[in-house]
Amino acid sequence: MPSAVLDVKHPMKMRHKEYIEKQRKRAANVAIGMLDGSIHYLEGAIELSSLRFEVGLPEDDKDFLAFTGVASEVDHLPIGAPRQYWSQEALYRHEPEIQQSIRWAKKISLSECKSIVARFNA
């Protein structure tokens, strides 16, 4: 049966497929930004962790699991949008830990970041 007929008969499947492709492209763009420095590495890791269930892969996918681990380890730090609610003194106090966390996160997830780009940057 031609795929065009399947698309007409099953429009929800096509929409789901398009959604997954969009999320995979988003994951690739986040990973590219993490690699080129245009996206804060830890913020990107948190976003990739949140995309884990949106890209149509098994939940134990090695690349995305790495970022789930990073996100779990840095969830107490002032990163991303919640940062605006932290005092300047607290931001200053946490900055060394943030920098150390970035170094650690890159050490354990840089190859997975590159893999996401290779897999989904079509």
Characterise the protein shown here.
This protein has helices at 3-9, 11-36, 41-51, 62-74, 88-120. The longest helix is centred in the C-terminal third of the chain and has 33 residues, at 88-120. With 122 residues, it is mainly α. The protein has five helices and no strands. The protein has one domain. Mean pLDDT is 90; it is low at 1-7.
Low-confidence stretches: 1-7
Rg result: 17 Å
Query: Largest beta sheet, briefly?
Result: none
Strand content: under 5%
What spatial form do the alpha-carbon principal axes imply?
Answer: elongated
Residues in helices, as a percent range = over 70%
Order of helices and strands: HHHHH
Structural class: mainly alpha
* Tally of strands: 0
Tell me, rounded to a whole number, the average pLDDT: 90
**How many domains, as an integer?**
1
Summed up, the helix count is 5
Distance between the termini: 27 Å
In short:
The chain is an all-alpha fold and 122 residues long. The protein is 74% helix and 0% strand.
Notable traits:
mainly alpha; elongated
List the helices and strands and how they pair.
Layout lengths: L2 H7 L1 H26 L4 H11 L10 H13 L13 H33 L2
Helix pairs in contact: 1-2, 2-3, 2-5, 3-4, 4-5
